[in-house]
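FORM 7B - TANDEM STRUCTURE REPORT

SECTION 1: FIRST PROTEIN
SEQUENCE AND TOKENS:
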Amino acid sequence: MYLLGLKKRVVLIFLLMIFSFILLLIRVGYIQIFMGNRINNMAYELWSKDIPIDSVRGNIYDRNGNLLVGNKLSPSVAVIPRQIKDKDAVAYFLSNTLGVSRDSIYDHLNKNVSIELIKPEGRKITSDIANKISKANIMGVYVVGDTVRYYPYKSLLASVLGFCGIDNQGIAGIENIYDSYLKGNKGALKIYTDAKGNLLGNIPGVYEGSVPGMDLYLTIDLEIQLTIERVIEEAVNRYNPEQMLVLSTNPKTGEILGMGSYPTFDPENYQEYPQEIYNRNLPIWMSYEPGSTFKILTFAAGLEEGVISLDEPFFCSGYKIVEDRRIKDWKAGGHGSQTFLQVLQNSCNLLVNTGTHLSLLRTL
């Protein structure tokens, strides 16, 4: 009787072991088949280190598709501190290559982070420096693709276009106002390491491309803008003014075809200029009385209505009483006898014809 009961217990335990083994197989199969991708992705996320790659900002064009602002390659340096074995040697190499102090590089290499961008020392470096670092093939030191803004016409439209910071963020002008459209989305270079930061050589890295920003087309006409810039340059050379501003518009639509001002600056090196120069766009920022420029409108109205003609004689005595006001000419003693064409050429403030007051052209 005792042996029979023992035999039953052994069989029961054996059946339970078989049932448990079957449940374990089902669970392992479920994990492998249905949860395998999820677990792999979680593992890859745990092992991966992302080296950021800036997106390419959108270009800026004039109304006819001429490039006003573009991009040019300017790589950056990133490090994974845990992968660097001899930090003294690496700090010495990078400090000499980048032309900065060894202590500043050493601080970057000893930070307790997964990935460290060497900035500002290693941002936007030249291709020659990038090649030198790449050829050194130092474990834990990476050169990543990066771009910097390129202004082919230098100071042309500088106050309108604005400029970007070291991280390619728009700081001023069009670059700032439309930054959300121009900047795009960043990418990354994924590399895989163990818990100690050692590179997992059996798992290839993954490049996640960035999404470029949107291009922007302005109402500016490059040919008109170049003409404006030449006029400003000639006026500055001849008269040496403190400030100048020029604005060209389409009177039918209000579109801005050209906009220039002096003093100006180079957007790629804006830090070299006083803030009051690069931080304001004079045609928008300043209010300026039209002055003698409004005379053209009054003169044109007189011609259109037939009140005056270009060859009609006119005498400027230097002043004229209009109602209770004494209107003075800008030239002491007046311009004397002249034609109405000469009136416009000489910017005379008074128009008198046979004793009749025709117009007050001076606007205050």
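SECTION 2: SECOND PROTEIN
SEQUENCE AND TOKENS:
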Amino acid sequence: MKIELKRIPVREAVNGYKDNAEEGVTAYGGKLDVRPKYQREFVYDDRQRDAVIETIKQDFPLNVMYWMTKDDGINYEMIDGQQRTISIGQYVSGNFALANRFFYNLTKEEQNQILDYELMIYFCEGTDKERLDWFKVINIAGEKLTDQEIRNAVYTGPWLSDAKLKFSKTSCAAYKLANDGGTLLNGELNRQHYLETALSWINHGEIDGYMAKHQHEPNANNLWSYFQDVIMWVRKTFPKYRKEMRGVNWGGLHNESKDKKLDAEKLETEVAQLMQDEDVTRRSGIYPYVLTRDERHLQIRAFTDNMKREVYEEQEGICKKCEEQFPFEEMEADHIKPWHEGGKTTSENCQMLCKDCNRRKSGK
């Protein structure tokens, strides 16, 4: 890979700066693609963005940036420096103020000081593989890329561009749908968490396989249609929203239960009861439990060491099943009346069994 360091003043770097939701971000007289398809979205918060401008105003050095020369030898795409470049472009374009002063409020001298500031930029030439490898290497020292941001660097194409419009942009369709009536998803849009979640749902966790298969398709309509089906199924099945619904694997539950006849009223009654059960320690697990009956989702409260020791002493170390005597360490606590039949996690409902008997009783 050929690398050459150049000093480019801000006035040239952000000349013709444009940020379009569909066409992307361009600068340097339209010759620089600031946000190539494999790049992350703009993730700087106000404090980080302001720090970039303050660094320039103080004439302190910014970290070097990396531009890749395209095959035509005229245009460029940014490998590293997107967050800083967009911060500068937004400020010079008048999108935000620093210390209550927009760029156009500054004196001519102050404006020129910013515009004349020289950015240190490495111009790089190389193959597509070298570009992606270099992109990963130089980003290790910066803000860590998410797994989905790395995938986006590999599976670029028309499908990904459309998927990002639907799942990654501010106030995109996926965000509006998943938050209308209560938030169902965890994560941040611009860090690709919504897109990653939808991909995980539709292909049972095999995200790379799905992206590779659909990489060159013209749009992501199938993924969007599936995502809509999942969210509408959730709203219909569990119409009363609770904060515990956020982050549940709704896609997996939809895939398994979408064809079952479910009674939303009965489910709501059971959910409400379980929410009040002090033995349920993972309340977000109530939703998968009422559909699958797998108690592991609930993390039923375990017997305390004091409860187990109390019952062990009462039993004089004798297993309630095989009636053999064992050391305390070789015995386990068991619900006499199972939790799903109304049994509570109390000393009165506890019996100590040897490990073999407890495993046979539990079907393990």
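SECTION 3: OBSERVATIONS ON SECOND PROTEIN
The radius of gyration is 29 Å.
The chain has 16 helices and nine strands.

SECTION 4: SIGNATURE
Preparer initials: ____
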